[in-house]
Amino acid sequence: MIIICYYLYVVSKQILILVSVMEIGSFFNLYPNGNPFAVRDHSAPHDVFMASGRQAIKHVVETLECKKCLVPNYLCESVHGCFNNFDYYRIGSDFSIDVQYLHKIVREEGRDYDLILITNFFGKVDTNISDVVSLCRDHDIIILEDFTHNLFSNELYGDVCIASFRKILPTPFGAILRSNTYRLGVKRIPSAEFVCVNLVKLLGTFLKNSTWLKWLWRPMLVYSENAMDSVEYAGDDFINRFFYNYYYDVDILRIRRNNIEHLESGLKKHNLMQDTYFCYTIECASEKERDALRAHMTKCNVYCPIYWPLDFDNRGECNHELNKKILSFPIDQRYDIPHMEHIIGCYNSFIADYPGGFPKGAN
Predict the structure, then answer these.
(1) Which of 114, 217, 222, 290 is least surrounded, with the fewest CB atoms within 10 Å of its CB?
(2) Which letter, b or e, does each residue of 304-321 get, where b requires 16 or more Cβ atoms within 10 Å of its Cβ?
(3) Radius of gyration of the CA atoms of the chain, in A
């Protein structure tokens, strides 16, 4: 069934190209990527595949019996539910760990933690990661590394590493759980509810390719995302392993880097996170200008995400100002130079017409 849908997509894609305008951003579409019967295994020996990154985190916390955890204070709200008991550590304005504060709560105040979640924001490994790793080793704190944004990295530092690879590869779901220290395999048989929720998301992803039924995919996605957190999870399932291996392609890096370089030269505005390939992130002068720019880009059919929309209530010392001013341009492997030129043109038209001034750093 999956194979038939892949090849039906080839026809639907050609029709969409003829009738649609240039659209950049939003969720991935599924597309054929070679012979599905000749898929090479790109996984490591003890990799476990799960439906989502949140399910992978929950599985780690429960399996390793982590009673109290540390999480960054710059964190997507949906991830909070993966932890029953946690404290925040601070993330600075350059998305780096406040090492001094981390030492204070772990070493000086003697708080007892079992696990720390470290996110490689936009694919950037913290410059002080060696110090952080050493601190965690001294205090027997398990490092859970989120390498979603640097999926193709071979230099992981975590005791346990997770990646929600659907953020990089064109799959409707899927996360990888990797560890050379712990055995985290899940032998649980998927429940009927689990299978149904995943089928809804898969069907919605196929409908996204449809000219007439495309409107159905978003409510199906919202339903499946919300339902996924409440159903009993299953791991090491065939479908996620297949999607990971089927779409895994290191050439994705080359395409993304080419797109970033073109935006860098055309926008004359630096990417906040240099030497990364997840997206092209800029900082505007204010939240008002950021929102105006985002609205303008949407009118141009360029859908710019904010990583991440945060809940500012009771967030301790979360970096509010940074989150209110950043905006990211899509640069993934679906796009090439003409798409980047479209982004540059839309951005420049905003700069020319915006009455309140230019975004921070614009020439």
Answers:
(1) 222
(2) bebbeebeeeebeebbee
(3) 21
